[in-house]
Amino acid sequence: MGIAYDQAGNTAEALAIFRQFPTDATVTARAAQLMLDTNNAAGAIPQLEAQAKAAPTTANRLLLIEAYKQTGQAAKVFEQLKLAAEADPTNYEVHMSYGRALRDQRHFLEAARQFSAAVTLRPDSVPALNDLAGDLIIAEKYEEGLAVLDKLRALGKEIPGDIYLRAITLDRLRRKSLAVEAYKQFLAVAGGKFPDEEFLSRQRVRIIETEMNR
User: Fold this and answer.
1) How far apart are CA 66 and CA 122, in angstroms?
2) What are the backbone dihedrals phi and psi of residue 175, each rounded to the nearest 5 degrees, phi first?
3) How would CATH label the architecture of 1-88?
């Protein structure tokens, strides 16, 4: 009967019946999913924690992660992402999610390692390449970051933000002529959509060209 209610979209009735079978793993798993789907993550967490403990699969961990996200438990989200990445190293989405969580905590090199793992799994992934380039450059791994930007350029997926990132990286490396070239390329494609970056680019072009002409 609970399944029939579930299939008919009668969530409250389905949950009422599912709760009568607390030892049936399939039933309780479905009940937890229904609670997540109806914004009752707090109610789903005990069951999801039990599932993840009994069967620590990536699927179970991802459900638990979603419940922790919905209830604002950032530390527990981070913990489960770490466990999932370690246990399932061939899961692209897990590496991406864990990398972004690390970046949010400003652990840029550790984040870059996760994005690098994602790129290994999907070499043409533009999101993974962009995240990897950004975090490497923030971590002052400039040559590695430029190499990733070169991959994006080779794929024909370079966006204005990538060009600007290339420009400021070359600038920091004191490769003046290349930096000016990149800044000018960025200004040519930005089209007024990035006013702060465009202002800074014009400033840097003037300053660098003055230095080069001395």
Assistant:
1) 24
2) -90, 80
3) Alpha Horseshoe (1.25)
